[in-house]
Amino acid sequence: MTDEYAPVSETGLGYDVFAPLWGILELSAVTVSGARSLRDVSLSVFVAAHRDDLDHLLGVIRSIGDFSAETMDIFERQGGWHDNRAVTPEYLMMYSGCIEGYPPDTDDPVVLRRMVHMGSDLQLTTLLDALVGAATVRGPGPEQAAALVVAAVRGAASLLGRDGNQAAVDTFRMWRVKFLPDILRPDAPSRPGAKEALRTHAHALETLLTPYQ
Question: N or C: which end of the chain has fewer CB within 10 A?
Answer without folding.
Answer: N
